[in-house]
Design goal:
single chain, seven-stranded mixed β-sheet, alpha/beta, binds S-adenosylmethionine, 9 strands
């Protein structure tokens, strides 16, 4: 499907599920959107295996193939999943290299990603005079692209330490790195450039799209972390997006793809940390504090939630100048959290299902904007979900031939 009708469908759906996206489940209580669509009983009754599968593969994994009937899924959920499917199943832009072995190791997934990136950039790089890697990090791909396509390359990166590392690792005279904070209007691309942004966070991706359109040059963009914007909201770039305005507070949902690491053990670790954080919030609420979700870790590094609950609670209480918890108080909150966090996880599944909608909407807005500006732009997947869930790529060339 062309990006324009897909974007229209995404915008229409966003309008319908705005209540789900806006209302995150923070307590073991069915939110209004859940009651209105009669989703509660089905979600609450999912057993642990089904819950684990839905978190790992997405709620759609429980519905696909049998129209949701065999699972007893509520019609509203089946209908929502069906409408989300075209946005999830975008066409691959390059043959999927290494997907089979991707589940095996981080190294295999990294290799598969690099191979896919190189395959995607190849045709555009062949015609480019220079590669401009924006948000280059330590310049891994900048160096690789310069070598693979035998082109001069420049890596732009705002973090001076990363730039220093990138320079230290670079042997070619025609590969250089600059410390630049790319913000509105500061990125000037020249004719013959191929602009690349790999995991370009939030507004950096938008800036890259604007600059590529202004210069009429090729672009390969894989976005991420849409919430990393300086303003309170992201507004549409494209005319087609109209008044679409996405608040920063909801943009993080676009990152919430279930296979966060693609490794079950890390997912289990992540869930255990979240349960501990919930137990801590419960404990703090029990002490009469007003603690919104996330605020329980105020003053503490998120990684501290990997410690045993007693240690985490002791640190959080000491930070607030409160008396330590005794064994009974700790055990009470830990036990209640085990059950209640399970309910929260189940009730959160429909909202997580909408994560791809947000991610795809932003990518479609960028694609439509580039096409409105006369570039040949396409949206698709860079690699399979198993390699990385951040796999949506916008590719644009200076002419409709690309
Ligand atoms: C997620 S990392 C990706 C690094 C690299 N492209 C890769 O794929 O491995 C994003 C990088 O963009 C940089 N960055 C974010 N915003 C930036 C900005 N406004 N200007 C320049 N660099 C930025 C960050 O410092 C970070 O190194």
């Amino acid at each position: 499907m062309e990006p324009e009708p897909l974007f229209d469908a995404a915008l229409a759906l966003l309008g319908e599920v705005g209540d789900i996206i806006a209302d995150r489940v923070e307590l073991p209580v069915e939110p209004a959107w859940c009651r209105a669509r009669e989703l509660g009983p089905f979600l609450r009754e999912l057993d642990d295996a089904a819950l684990g599968r839905a978190e790992l593969e997405g709620l759609d994994a429980l519905l696909v193939g049998n129209g949701g009937r065999a699972t007893g899924a509520p019609p509203a959920l089946v209908a929502l999943a069906a409408r989300l499917r075209p946005l999830t199943a975008l066409p691959p832009l390059v043959p999927d290299a290494g997907a089979g072995e991707a589940a095996r190791s981080v190294g295999a997934r990294k290799r598969a990603q690099l191979a896919a990136r190189a395959a995607l950039c190849g045709p555009l790089a062949a015609r480019a005079e220079r590669i401009v890697d924006v948000g280059a990090g330590r310049g891994h791909f900048t160096r690789l692209a310069a070598a693979e396509f035998d082109k001069p390359a420049v890596g732009l990166e705002r973090d001076p330490a990363r730039v220093a590392r990138a320079r230290a690792l670079t042997g070619r005279a025609d590969v250089r790195f600059e410390v630049v904070d790319v913000t509105a209007g500061t990125l000037a691309l020249a004719p013959g450039d191929l602009a690349i942004g790999l995991h370009a966070c939030g507004e950096l991706g938008d800036e890259l799209v604007r600059a590529a359109a202004a210069a009429g040059v090729g672009l390969v963009l894989v976005g991420c972390c849409a919430q990393k914007i300086r303003g309170p909201a992201r507004v549409a770039l494209s005319r087609r997006g109209g008044t679409l305005t996405l608040a920063r507070a909801i943009l993080g949902l676009g990152n919430l793809r279930p296979r966060a690491e693609g490794v079950e053990s890390s997912l289990a670790e992540c869930l255990a940390s979240r349960e501990r954080r919930y137990a801590l919030r419960r404990l703090l609420l029990g002490r009469g504090l007003e603690v919104t979700a996330g605020a329980e870790m105020q003053g503490l590094n998120r990684r501290r939630a990997r410690q045993p609950f007693a240690v985490l609670a002791a640190e959080a209480l000491a930070l607030r100048g409160l008396a330590p918890a005794d064994a009974e108080e700790l055990a009470r909150h830990e036990a209640a959290a085990r059950h209640e966090h399970g309910v929260i996880r189940r009730l959160s599944l429909p909202r997580a299902l909408c994560g791809r909608l947000l991610e795809a909407t932003i990518a479609l807005d960028r694609t439509c904007f580039l096409r409105e500006q006369g570039l040949a732009a396409r949206l698709g997947t860079l690699c399979s979900d198993a390699v990385t869930p951040r796999n949506l790529a916008v590719v644009a060339g200076p002419s409709r031939e690309q």
